């Protein structure tokens, strides 16, 4: 559904009374580059069942085929080796969605690519995003997000290759929790209101190829 001329709001009336969305087995949801408006549909995030780890006999099972994906950010081409392309992608980018990022996003703990850039999203990055420990790409740039950057995103650098938060209204320090042996290659925090010195833990990002942290 990406790159069409779809417009209007996404309604979730069929979620009332506990009904499940008809695409409960959907593993890639991409409606980017359209003209959708209104708030992000929180009900959708509650029902992306295929993007959750399902516990079987006490162990977590994931469905999907492992395959490399090429992600292009502002001309920078990044290969995400081993991303589970059939179970892990949500892309609402380049629309006119408003409102906050739903806390239900934290239920999608097998999600590896979350793309919400270039909308009109407000509020803070929800703390529940710290549940997404398998995340490889997080792109929330060009919104109106406020508050601080969750420190847990530094911990995610063992799997996170792309962290793009540019062009928001984020304040406070850059995460100080980057770990040894991390995989971070692209870090863009440009155009926020961040404060404080560069964290010493950035030295641990030895694979870093793009670093942009110019503040307003």
TrEMBL record:
GO cellular component, one term: plasma membrane
This protein's name: Non-specific serine/threonine protein kinase
Membrane topology: Single-pass type I membrane protein
Keyword Glycoprotein part of the UniProt annotation: yes
Stored Pfam families: LRR_1, LRR_8
Compartments it resides in: Cell membrane
Keywords associated with the record: Cell membrane, Glycoprotein, Leucine-rich repeat, Membrane, Receptor, Repeat, Signal, Transmembrane, Transmembrane helix
Chain ranges passing through the membrane: none
Homology family: Belongs to the RLP family.
UniProt organism field: Handroanthus impetiginosus
């Amino acid at each position: 559904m990406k790159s069409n001329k779809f417009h209007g709001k996404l309604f979730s009336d069929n979620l009332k009374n506990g009904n499940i969305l008809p695409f409960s087995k959907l593993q890639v949801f991409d409606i980017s580059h359209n003209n959708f408006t209104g708030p992000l549909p929180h009900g959708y995030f509650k029902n992306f069942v295929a993007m959750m780890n399902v516990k079987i006999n006490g162990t977590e099972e994931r469905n999907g085929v492992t395959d490399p994906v090429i992600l292009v950010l502002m001309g920078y081409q990044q290969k995400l080796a081993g991303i589970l392309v059939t179970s892990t992608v949500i892309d609402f980018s380049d629309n006119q969605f408003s409102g906050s990022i739903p806390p239900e996003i934290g239920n999608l703990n097998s999600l590896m690519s979350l793309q919400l850039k270039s909308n009109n999203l407000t509020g803070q990055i929800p703390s529940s995003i710290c549940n997404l420990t398998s995340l490889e790409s997080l792109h929330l740039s060009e919104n109106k997000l406020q508050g601080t950057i969750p420190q847990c995103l530094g911990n995610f650098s063992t799997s996170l290759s792309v962290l793009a938060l540019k062009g928001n209204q984020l304040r406070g320090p850059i995460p100080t929790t980057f770990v040894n042996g991390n995989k971070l290659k692209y870090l863009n925090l440009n155009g926020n209101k961040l404060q404080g010195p560069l964290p010493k833990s950035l030295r641990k990002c030895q694979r870093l190829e793009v670093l942009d942290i110019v503040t307003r």
